[in-house]
């Protein structure tokens, strides 16, 4: 596959009711609040002048609605132009799957995951054992073991980057094309922990409707070499 450089504008979806109620929301879904609709339009205003060549999001309502509102606000996609933009909706771009803990109160869920290890909160799990352990501990605590392990999670997320590269190639996007992706809070934070150099304050979760920018060199052999963080949580 011929390589190219893609400029990725990654937006966290607008606020949902589960966000508002502090509940885990991975593959489950809840509607956007009015604040969430406003989040999407604020992101759309920030990106109104960006010429996008393709757009990607998960197959969750919150992501698709956010995508549609941002594209609808884009000055370069008025009328029929928006219909011609390659848009890919795929499960590869979903948030982490929390299994049995989907929809549970966050504090209760992370206590169940971390307390057996002496870490009764999400922050204490990450501080003592690292981000990967938060996924593995939750899978361990899940009575059905349906929650994604760290390995399962990254296998899926990595397939999303492969899909972006393949779509760019198949659609014959120009080198340096701008790509819009709607993502999710924990996934954005996880990607920043994996790809960002030191200097970013990752104790701050990305806000709903915030924009994070990556440069993606599709010719690189490894994602750690392919991704350059440009900005976070803007």
UniProtKB/TrEMBL annotation:
SUPFAM superfamilies: Phosphoglycerate mutase-like. GO terms for cellular component: cytosol. Pfam families: His_Phos_1. It comes from the Bacteria. GO terms for molecular function: fructose-2,6-bisphosphate 2-phosphatase activity. Keywords: Hydrolase. Substrate binds at residues 12-19, 62, 95-98. The active site is at 13 (tele-phosphohistidine intermediate), 95 (proton donor/acceptor). The keyword Hydrolase applies. The keyword Hydrolase applies. GO terms for biological process: negative regulation of glycolytic process; regulation of pentose-phosphate shunt. Transmembrane segments: none annotated. This is Phosphoglycerate mutase family protein. It comes from Parascardovia denticolens DSM 10105 = JCM 12538.
């Amino acid at each position: 596959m011929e390589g190219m450089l893609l400029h990725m504008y990654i937006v966290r979806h607008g606020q949902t009711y589960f966000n508002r109620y502090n509940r885990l929301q991975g593959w489950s879904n809840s509607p956007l609040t009015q604040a969430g609709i406003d989040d999407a339009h604020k992101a759309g205003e920030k990106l109104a002048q960006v010429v996008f060549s393709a757009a990607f999001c998960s197959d969750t309502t919150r992501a698709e609605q956010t995508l549609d509102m941002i594209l609808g606000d884009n000055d370069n996609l008025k009328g029929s132009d928006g219909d011609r933009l390659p848009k890919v909706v795929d499960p590869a771009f979903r948030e982490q799957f929390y299994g049995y803990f989907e929809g549970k109160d966050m504090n209760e869920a992370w206590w169940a995951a971390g307390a057996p290890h002496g870490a009764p909160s999400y922050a204490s799990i990450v501080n003592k054992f690292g981000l990967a352990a938060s996924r593995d501990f939750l899978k361990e605590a899940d009575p059905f073991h349906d929650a994604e392990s760290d390995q399962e999670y990254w296998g899926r997320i990595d397939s999303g980057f492969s899909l972006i590269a393949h779509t760019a190639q198949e659609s014959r996007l120009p080198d340096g094309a701008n790509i819009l992706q709607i993502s999710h809070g924990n996934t954005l934070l996880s990607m920043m922990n994996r790809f960002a150099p030191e200097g970013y304050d990752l104790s701050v979760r990305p806000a709903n409707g915030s924009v994070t920018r990556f440069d993606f060199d599709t010719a690189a052999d490894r994602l750690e070499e392919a991704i350059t963080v440009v900005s976070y949580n803007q």
